[in-house]
């Protein structure tokens, strides 16, 4: 049974992984620092592994979808991330695809 | 607090220098944020720190996520070819050294210690062999665009029409034959370049070992021999990697054979590469010089004939192979 559970968890993890970028882009229309994004996603029911999320933020920034800046105004320096111009466009396109995909899945699983 | 710095150090150690500082600073700030959230302003205990670090995960894992490239020396694209070349290179190296050892043992006899030396030599040679092959493949990996890009490009530009034809009997390559050919080529190359003095035999009642190759004459031929060796090596490796003949490999092997034939003819017209200067007795010297001169010429004639036959045989196979017809057919498409 335990083996079956691990298998299932692996499958679900894989399924979630594909939605990760969309989650991050979708929640970064306002600027947030890494831990705030973790909290925000958690509040929306997405429990994301930090060791995956923080490197992902860097990668998306390198790909030009996010902008980032160190903010020194608070109690400690924090790196804030926000959607870039290109990130906005990608998000809009991805959203459309996502809804289309959700519809398709709905039909398939009905 | 000490744990946090140790954690950040462990991650940073695995990152390239360019972004290391920045990532370390960000990680520190993120860890402090998580700690604040956990303790709500209280001073964090060691247990709190451990819990927060555990959420971040093992340093090696998070560092791997930060690294952009795959984090491997040789990726899946080249891995199987890499393993094949490693195996062949190791076998050829060991074989070459054993042949050299055997020849020297026949010449000078062996003491048990020599076997130990041989083992040591093979051991070291294998290390450098793996090193050279690995560095070559690592460079190939780095110089080629990364796999992600390649995947997307390939699906767009890949055309089923480009699929190679199934090799017919004329194009089929036996891996065992080519491996053997490779081992002998490498062994010969090692011997002629590094141990030419081993070509010789015992003579006289004292059983003295006489080198028969004229090393000075050999020096003039060596560059040509090595060019042919290189050609043959490239051809054999391509054949092994692709498992079949195609236009390029046919051409390479034919040029190699023709080159060997021309070299043999050229050597026939040149000075005799036999050195009898070490023989004491003048009569023996004269006889040996005569006999060995004929043997030398005989070997060259045979080599020239064998190379010519091989070239013709390969040319014939090429003409009959269907791959060639397919090529022509595709050009007309």
Average residue-wise pLDDT of chain A: 91
Distance between the termini of chain B: 72 Å
- Biggest interface found: A-B, 19 and 20 residues
Largest sheet of chain A: 3 strands, antiparallel
Could you give the order of the helices and strands of chain B? Answer: HHHHHHHHEEHHHH
Number of helices of chain A: 5
What percentage of the residues of chain B does DSSP assign to strands (E)? under 5%
Overall shape of chain A: it is: globular
Helix proportion range of chain A: 55-70%
Question: Any idea of the CATH class of chain A?
Answer: Mainly Alpha
Beginning-to-end CA distance, first to last residue of chain A: 28 Å
Radius of gyration of chain B: 30 Å
What portion of residues of chain B is helical? over 70%
Number of spatially distinct domains of chain A: 1
Sum up the overall morphology of chain B in one term: elongated
Helix/sheet category of chain B: mainly alpha
Task: Give the SSE layout.
The complex is a heterodimer of chains A (110) and B (333).
Chain A lengths: L1 H16 L2 H8 L4 E2 H10 L6 H13 L3 E6 L6 E6 L1 H25 L1
Antiparallel strand pairs in A: 1-3, 2-3
Chain B lengths: L1 H11 L4 H23 L6 H11 L2 H8 L9 H33 L3 H32 L3 H11 L17 H20 L5 E4 L4 E4 L3 H28 L4 H23 L12 H39 L1 H11 L1
Antiparallel strand pairs in B: 1-2
Helix pairs in contact in B: 1-2, 1-4, 2-3, 5-6, 5-8, 8-9, 9-10, 10-11
Describe this entry's structure for a reader.
With 110 residues, chain A is of the alpha+beta class. Chain A has one domain: Arc Repressor Mutant, subunit A. Chain A has 5 helices and 3 strands. Chain A has helices at residues 2-17, 20-27, 34-43, 50-62, 85-109; strands at residues 32-33, 66-71, 78-83. Chain B is an all-alpha fold and 333 residues long. Chain B is 75% helix and 2% strand. Chain B is elongated and about 105 Å long. The model of chain B is unreliable at 147-154 (pLDDT under 50). Chain A binds chain B through residues 33-36, 39, 49-52, 54-56, 58-59, 62, 76-79, and chain B through 19, 23, 25-27, 29-30, 32-34, 37, 55-58, 61-62, 65-66, 68.
């Amino acid at each position: 049974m335990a083996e079956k559970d691990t298998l299932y968890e692996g499958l679900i993890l894989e399924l979630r992984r594909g939605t990760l970028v969309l989650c991050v882009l979708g929640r970064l229309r306002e600027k947030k620092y890494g831990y705030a994004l973790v909290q925000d996603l958690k509040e929306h029911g997405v429990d994301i592994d930090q060791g995956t999320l923080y490197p992902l933020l860097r990668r998306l920034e390198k790909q030009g979808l996010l902008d980032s800046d160190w903010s020194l105004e608070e109690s400690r320096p924090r790196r804030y991330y926000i959607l870039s111009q290109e990130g906005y466009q990608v998000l809009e396109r991805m959203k459309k695809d996502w809804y289309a995909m959700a519809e398709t899945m709905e039909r398939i699983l009905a | 607090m000490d744990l946090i710095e140790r954690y950040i150090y462990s991650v940073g150690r695995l990152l390239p220098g360019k972004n290391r500082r920045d990532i370390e600073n960000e990680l520190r700030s993120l860890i402090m944020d998580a700690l604040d959230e956990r303790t709500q302003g209280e001073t964090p205990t060691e247990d709190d720190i451990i819990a927060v670090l555990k959420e971040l995960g093992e340093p090696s894992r998070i560092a791997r996520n930060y690294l952009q490239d795959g984090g491997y020396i040789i990726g899946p694209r080249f891995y199987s070819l890499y393993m094949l070349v490693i195996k062949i290179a190791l076998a050829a190296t060991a074989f070459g050294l054993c042949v050299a050892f055997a020849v020297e043992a026949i010449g000078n006899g062996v003491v048990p210690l020599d076997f130990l030396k041989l083992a040591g030599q093979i051991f070291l040679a294998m290390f450098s062999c793996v090193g050279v092959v690995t560095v070559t493949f690592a460079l190939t990996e780095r110089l080629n665009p990364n796999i992600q890009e390649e995947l997307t490009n390939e699906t767009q530009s890949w055309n089923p029409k480009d699929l190679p034809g199934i090799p017919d009997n004329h194009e089929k390559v036996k891996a065992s034959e080519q491996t053997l050919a490779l081992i002998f080529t490498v062994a010969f190359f090692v011997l002629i370049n590094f141990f030419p003095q081993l070509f010789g035999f015992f003579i006289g009642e004292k059983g003295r070992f006489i080198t028969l190759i004229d090393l000075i004459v050999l020096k003039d031929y060596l560059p040509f021999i090595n060019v042919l060796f290189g050609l043959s090596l490239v051809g054999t490796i391509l054949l092994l990697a692709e498992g079949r003949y195609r236009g390029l490999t046919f051409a390479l092997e034919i040029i190699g054979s023709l080159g060997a034939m021309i070299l043999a003819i050229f050597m026939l017209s040149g000075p005799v590469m036999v050195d009898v200067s070490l023989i004491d007795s003048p009569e023996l010297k004269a006889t040996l010089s005569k006999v060995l001169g004929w043997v030398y010429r005989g070997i060259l004639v045979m080599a020239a004939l064998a190379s010519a036959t091989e070239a013709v045989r390969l040319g014939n196979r090429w003409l009959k192979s269907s791959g060639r017809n397919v090529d022509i057919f595709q050009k007309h498409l």
